[in-house]
Amino acid sequence: MDLVQVAVTSLVSLAAMFLLTKLMGNKQVSQMNLFDYVIGITVGSIAAEMATELDTPENSLVAMVVYAVAAVCISLWTNKSLGARRIITGKPLILMDGGVIYRENLKKTKMDLGDFLMYCRIGGYFDLGQIQTALLEHNGTVTFLPVEMQRPATPADLSMQPDQTLLQTSVIQDGVILRGNLQRIGKDESWLVRQLEKQGYREAGEVFLAMADGNQVTVFPMESKREPADLADR
């Protein structure tokens, strides 16, 4: 009987955690601030305890709800109050600007020069002379403003007026035509078949993924004739 109760409370805690997570809002780990991270760990720990607490599982459920409601209230508070936002989520910190690396700010973030150089390389900057400003955002990511002469040229710089790129929508997945997505982009199945035939495909079953933007279709075959490269050899 205890095993059945553990299974039931586990499912209830999982459902409760899912609903509370949806209530608090979906965020990737990289988007979380310190408060979000602490709340996430705490709610997860309570949910795990609830699954094995056979005597009073309702206490754990109440605690989960309280934490979730508190997280929502604080989120609303920080949205309305700049002061609260600075206290709870923090503010961006300048790590480098105009050729100067701010050592004290690196110390505040518990980041050494090796860490800073790693973030620069991850951002695509192997030459620090290409960086005008480096900021540590409140979620822990480092963002960069390049030196004006080092930034990529834009169509506006070249006085060009290219056509607007449209959002691509998947119209075939695993050989199955997604008719609802076709309707959303104003196309039908016959149009899709013609597009596939132009690229040498006889049927949707030969297609692993097809993406359409309303004008053209990008197709990825079900079976590629080219083997992927072995990264271990590089």
Summarize this structure as a short list of keywords or feature phrases.
234 residues, alpha+beta, CRO Repressor, 3 domains, 4-stranded antiparallel sheet, 8 helices, 8 strands, 15% strand, cell membrane, DUF421 domain-containing protein, transmembrane helix, UPF0702_alpha/beta_dom_sf, membrane
Number of domains: 3
Strand order of the largest sheet: 2-1-3-4
Number of strands: 8
What characteristic shape results from the CA principal axes? flat
Q: N-to-C SSE series? A: HHHHEEHHEEEEHHEE
Q: Bin the strand percentage.
A: 15-25%
Average pLDDT, to the nearest integer? Answer: 78
The span between the termini is: 56 Å
Report on the biggest sheet: 4 strands, antiparallel
Fraction of residues in H or I helices: 40-55%
- Tally the helices: 8
Q: Nearest-angstrom radius of gyration?
A: 26 Å
Structural class: alpha+beta
Instruction: Name the poorly predicted regions.
Output: none
Keywords: Cell membrane, Membrane, Transmembrane, Transmembrane helix
Family: Belongs to the UPF0702 family.
Protein name: DUF421 domain-containing protein
Subcellular location: Cell membrane
Describe this structure in words.
- There is one protein chain.
- This protein is an alpha+beta fold and 234 residues long.
- The protein has three domains: 85 residues, no CATH class; 58 residues, 2-Layer Sandwich (CRO Repressor); 53 residues, bsu07140 like domains (CRO Repressor), CATH 3.30.240.20.
- β1 and β2 form a beta hairpin.
- The longest helix has 24 residues.
- The mean pLDDT is 78.
